[in-house]
Amino acid sequence: MILDASFHHSAMKKLPDGRRRGRPDITHLFLLTALESIVNKKGQLTVVVHTRNNKAIYVNPETRLMRNYTRFIGLMEQLFEKEIIETDEKILLQLQHDITLKEIIEKTDADMIMGFSTQGKHVQLPEYFSTLKKKKCPHLLCIIGGFPSGDFQCDLTAITQDIISLYDDMLSAWTVASEILVNYENIFLRCP
Amino acid sequence: MILDASFHHSAMKKLPDGRRRGRPDITHLFLLTALESIVNKKGQLTVVVHTRNNKAIYVNPETRLMRNYTRFIGLMEQLFEKEIIETDEKILLQLQHDITLKEIIEKTDADMIMGFSTQGKHVQLPEYFSTLKKKKCPHLLCIIGGFPSGDFQCDLTAITQDIISLYDDMLSAWTVASEILVNYENIFLRCP
Asked: Which residues neighbour B107 within 8 Å (Cβ) at sequence distance 6 or greater?
């Protein structure tokens, strides 16, 4: 059973870090934003979800994720049980155990690794991405927090080249994803 | 009870226009994208949801909408029963009956009314918004379809000044909303 703070609130109070857990709704909303973006439709996005227990969920960009939350939870329960969700032709979701965020990053060929946090330096994303484009850095790896409060548990500075902030206040994971995806499309995927 | 195609599928098959109905999940995802956007946090957004039965839902921009879908459905059922959701200090959601999309538009002071449809002319939103900014048209009214398939039931050309398309393929309502909101923020809400 997938923990959901909306339904298992009292049980979760006793868990360590209970306030930061049981929010698969954040993952669902983030994935719907990412997978249905124009950047993804153009085949330019890879999504990995890293969990607090060092598990990674690899998401096939062609996955048509259910919009209904209850069905999404069913899918996640199936994934954690079978470790793979596949159709006849392809693997849609795959679960990997015992992998840190750092190890996930090391497997990619990103030109630039950036984290998003209110603690980062304030930037305007269009100008920031334009500079990266001029430096011929099109492969960006963006780390977005998917927890309801607080900051990253790991030391972001040790695994990123830059930590940036898009707004003074906390933003939801899917708002940060939208900002990244629309600006990436504007700057990197269109003719000058 | 709010119709939900995920749960009431067989009952809905008998309803007229059944394939276009029972998708409160689209409204939920759209509202979370809109209300948690930077444009809304800066106080520059008004959201109205118009239903197929000519009802309007006015959403207070300060509403902190529940992310959990099951709770959102509970809220909508309460809204359709009581016609208003309020706290001690303010009205969060209000339902109005017997109002057409045209009548909603006429009550606003928009400089420019645009619809979004794959049938519209292809534009690049940054350039399109820049032109509107130069023409001193900051108050945009954007009409986004919230149905799972097909096109608008009403004649969009009769109620809009422009119909535009952002991509060759269908986009989800929240993807269109993201494109509008991030580009609006970039063009209209930042110093040149």
From this structure: none
Q: By percentage, how much of chain A surpasses pLDDT 90?
A: 77
Q: In this structure, what token pair is assigned to residue A139?
A: 């492969």
Out of A25, A38, A41, the one facing B68 most closely (by C-beta) is: A25
Whole-angstrom distance, CA of residue B41 vs CA of residue A118: 15
Distance (Å) from the alpha carbon of A59 to chain B's nearest alpha carbon: 19
pLDDT, tens digit, 9 for 90 and up, residues A20-69: 777 899 999 999 999 999 999 999 999 999 998 999 999 999 999 999 99
Strands B112-122 and A47-50: unpaired
Interaxial angle between packed helices B173-188 and B24-35, expressed in degrees from 0 to 180 and rounded to the nearest 10: 20
The residue of chain A with its CA nearest to that of B4 is: A68
Task: Give residue A192's pLDDT band: very low, low, confident or very high (50, 70, 90).
Answer: low
Chain B residues with CB inside 8 Å of A33's CB?
33, 174-175, 178
String of DSSP letters for B30-98: HHHHHHTSHHHHTT---EEEE-TTS-EEEE-TT----S-HHHHHHHHHHHHHHSEEE-SS-EEEEEE-S
- Across B115-133, b (16+ Cβ under 10 Å) vs e yields bbbeebeeeebbebbeebe
Are the beta carbons of B80 and B57 closer than 8 angstroms? no
Distance of CA B74 to the CA centre of its chain: 20
Predicted ipTM beyond 0.90: yes
Q: Is A69 within 8 Å of A75 (Cβ atoms)? A: no
CB neighbour list of residue B41: distance below 8 Å, 6 or more residues apart: A167, A169
More confident residue, B56 or A11: B56
Output the average pLDDT for chain A.
92
Are the C-beta atoms of B140 and B132 separated by less than 8 Å? yes
pLDDT in tens, B136-185: 989 999 999 998 888 888 899 999 999 999 999 999 999 999 999 999 99
